Amino acid sequence: MNYENILVATDNKITTITINRPTKLNALNKATIHELHEAFKNAESDENVNVILLTGSGEKAFVAGADISEFAHFSVEEGAQLSAQGQELLFDFVENLKTPVIAAINGFALGGGLELAMSCHFRVASENAKMGLPEVSLGVIPGYGGTQRLPQLIGKGKAMELIMTAGMLNAEEALDWKLVNHVVSSAELIPFCTEIATKILRNSPIAISKAIKSINANFKDGVNGFETEIKNFGKSFGTEDFKEGTTAFLEKRKPVFTGK
Description:
This protein is α/β, with parallel strands linked by helices and 260 residues long. The chain is built from ten helices and ten strands. β2, α1 and β3 form a beta-alpha-beta unit. α1 packs parallel to α2, α2 packs parallel to α3 and α8 runs antiparallel to α9. The longest helix has 20 residues. It starts with 5 loop residues before the first strand and ends in a 10-residue tail after the last helix. The model has no long low-confidence stretch (mean pLDDT 95).
């Protein structure tokens, strides 16, 4: 599929999705959100893809925010619809993918950009990264899950402070606040994420997908995470990967997982 706003490349079971609007600092507009949805959906359905990396083109920005020009004159109803559609198409969609998604944050990740990074399963930042949710400085609040995911990641008090001050964290502060898992140089960002992805590739894809679902269950209203874990643990016993993993362990060899 041809895209106008993103680049997609797959190598060794790793798909890299790059948001490619450098003149707009990779800001999210409706077209880009739809393209990202399609790219993630296609990667998810591809049996030859076991890890997804998400990044932005250039070193200035992962995603500098949403494209404000698209919604500056929206009504109340249009604003609510914008938030609901965006969460369904992209942010919630990414969080609930069975394929692990790593955000490689290069430069600015602000507003919708940080919300997109937070919807990924974990984050790695370059040393020049800057992160924040500045929406209240525009008279609005984060609408793509930021008020929910930020407290989950860094705690309620720190999330309140960051959102209410419209402040920005540098990479080391984001690491200290546990918003990102690692900080590396700009040159090392993609190689480092690829190294992590390669480690993930050694393990059972179907077990990883069940682990993602079980971890996410703890943050879903009305869902008992422990019960979800029990069910997915039990289901693992019926997979070919379980048979291969346990057999390989007993035979003292490396397993060859098929994701089935």
